[in-house]
Amino acid sequence: MIDCYTKLSTTTTINTELLNLCNDGSAWIDPSIGTFCQKHPSMELIRSDPFLNWVCENYILYDFRTSVHIFMLRPWSHYQLHTDKFRSASINMLINPGADSISYFQTSEFYKLQCSITELQYEPLRYYLFNSRIPHAMTNRDSERYLLSISLKYDYATMKGLLADYSFLN
What we know:
It is a single chain. The chain is an alpha+beta fold and 170 residues long. It has a single domain, classed as q2cbj1_9rhob like domain (Jelly Rolls). A six-stranded antiparallel sheet has the order 1-8-5-10-3-2. The longest helix has 10 residues. It is globular and about 50 Å long.
């Protein structure tokens, strides 16, 4: 079986603050390259969560501003199957876990028009290590979907080992 994601043993301590940021009325940055709009949470907010502080101190891909995002997927939209070009792993958390959306990975191809998938069912407040090199997609239904995503400087297998070493895996 393909190792697409890993549920971490730690949960967020700042979900209310992140959700407030999503709904505060300030403008979302629209990159005009698809359905993802984004906001950048403050470094102070992210570092107030002990786990995220540890991640940002040691493992972000670039600088804080280009590695830490809140992504918003608009209602009734689909982000096509893809692999991330500039990162191979991330820490993700669905900020509004009641959102009617599905995240999935393509785990094999049967024919050109069919494939098997593995769904990632986000648990409330839970962090996940996400393998960005496996083809993945998101489909959203009738409300916005907010995702905290932190780009990591090491590949998925390396990060999984580091997270295990520090007892962040179940």
